[in-house]
Amino acid sequence: MKKFSLVTAIAVAAISATAVSSFAQEWAPDRPINIIVPWGAGGATDQVTRVTAPILAEQLGTDVVVVNQPGASGAVGTQEVLASERDGYTLLATGVADAATYAVTGLIEGTTIDDWHLYLSVANVSVISVPADSPYEDFGQLLAAFQEDGAGITVATAGISSAGGTAIATLGEAGGFEYNLVAYEGGGPATIATASGESMVTTQLAGEQAELIRGGRLRALAVLSDQPLTIEGVAPIPPVTEWLPEIEISYNYFGVLAPKGIPEDVIATLDGIWGESVANSEQLQSYAETAGALFTPAYGAEAREMVSATVVAQACAAVDRGDAVNDPSTIGVDCEAGTETPLQ
Question: Which of 187, 217, 253, 266 could anchor a disulfide with 208, C-beta 3.0 to 4.6 Å?
Answer without folding.
Answer: 187
